[in-house]
């Protein structure tokens, strides 16, 4: 998708340069913008920025170009407005020969929502870039507890990338709790257990072990037998039986 975006951008620049020399150098040209075409890369993934949302942003700031004279439209201003949104990584705007405006947007896709004990509340993308919620809500795992921005960027982003790329665990992990010593506990959507992941390293191995436990042990003993599942050590799984209710 990124390659396609680069090709579209290159084509757009070529068209724009040819058009600019033949039309926009003429100061008396008052032809009006007939419309806006917005393309958002990675639009098939769960993100907050759609073409409709980008359209809304432009309208809300009063710089929507349709109906305005082409010579009075600033592509740079439109790009700057869009880039102010933390979920937009890059925006490129150019005019076309048929009096339209093309806008190409590359978005940041949220992996996790962080609601730290310090009161900080933000989403992180695959590079650990922090983005304020700005009223957006996504069905993502929520990380809580003792989380610094650096821990979120360097460790939680790694865990978030693994969850994103594994559909089962992406659906199964509901909450990630970080302790004072920066160990990670997981609250699943299905099953009433706390899963102790330990430090967020050897993530694929730990989840493979957990999957094997889910497939081989849980069907035999039932989902309510254990209150805790410990996969901190990659060579063993330790479980705590649930206390019998009096």
Q: Can you walk through the features of this model?
A:
With 246 residues, the chain is an alpha/beta fold. The protein has two domains: 2-107, membrane protein fhac (Ubiquitin-like (UB roll), Roll), CATH 3.10.20.310; 112-241, Cell division protein FtsQ/DivIB (Rossmann fold). It is 33% helix and 25% strand. The chain has helices at residues 2-24, 51-60, 75-83, 149-164, 167-172, 203-216, 218-221; strands at residues 35-40, 88-95, 100-107, 112-116, 121-124, 130-131, 142-145, 173-178, 184-188, 194-198, 226-230, 238-241. A hairpin with a 7-residue loop joins strand 11 and strand 12. The model has no long low-confidence stretch (mean pLDDT 88).
Short description:
With 246 residues, this protein is of the alpha/beta class. The protein contains 7 helices and 12 strands.
If strands are numbered along the chain, what order do they take across the biggest sheet?
A: 6-5-4-7-8-9-10-11-12
- Main β-sheet: number of strands, strand sense, barrel status? 9 strands, mixed
The name CATH uses for the topology of the largest domain is Rossmann fold
Domain count: the total is 2
Break the fold down into its secondary structure elements and pairings:
Blueprint: H1 2-24, E1 35-40, H2 51-60, H3 75-83, E2 88-95, E3 100-107, E4 112-116, E5 121-124, E6 130-131, E7 142-145, H4 149-164, H5 167-172, E8 173-178, E9 184-188, E10 194-198, H6 203-216, H7 218-221, E11 226-230, E12 238-241
Parallel strand pairs: 1-3, 4-7, 7-8, 10-11
Antiparallel strand pairs: 2-3, 4-5, 5-6, 8-9, 9-10, 11-12
């Amino acid at each position: 998708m990124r390659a396609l975006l680069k090709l579209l951008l290159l084509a757009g620049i070529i068209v724009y340069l040819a058009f600019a020399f033949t039309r926009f150098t003429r100061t008396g040209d008052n032809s009006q913008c007939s419309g806006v075409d917005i393309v958002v890369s990675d639009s098939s993934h769960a993100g907050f920025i759609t073409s409709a949302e980008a359209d809304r942003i432009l309208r809300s700031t009063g710089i929507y170009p349709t109906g305005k004279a082409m010579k009075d439209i600033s592509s740079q201003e439109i790009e700057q407005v869009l880039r102010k949104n933390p979920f937009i990584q890059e925006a490129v705007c150019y005019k076309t020969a048929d009096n339209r405006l093309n806008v190409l947007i590359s978005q940041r896709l949220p992996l996790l929502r962080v609601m730290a004990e310090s009161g900080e509340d933000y989403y992180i993308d695959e590079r650990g870039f922090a983005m304020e919620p700005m009223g957006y809500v996504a069905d993502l795992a929520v990380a809580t507890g003792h989380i610094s921005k650096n821990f979120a960027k360097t460790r939680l982003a790694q865990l978030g990338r693994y969850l994103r790329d594994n559909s089962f665990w992406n659906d199964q992990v509901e909450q990630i709790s970080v302790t004072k010593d920066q160990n990670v506990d997981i609250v699943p959507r299905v099953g009433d257990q706390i899963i102790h992941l330990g430090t967020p390293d050897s993530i694929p191995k730990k989840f493979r072990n957990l999957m094997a436990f889910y497939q081989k042990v849980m069907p035999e003993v039932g989902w309510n037998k254990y209150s805790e599942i410990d996969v901190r050590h990659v060579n063993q799984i330790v479980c705590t039986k649930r206390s019998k209710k009096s």
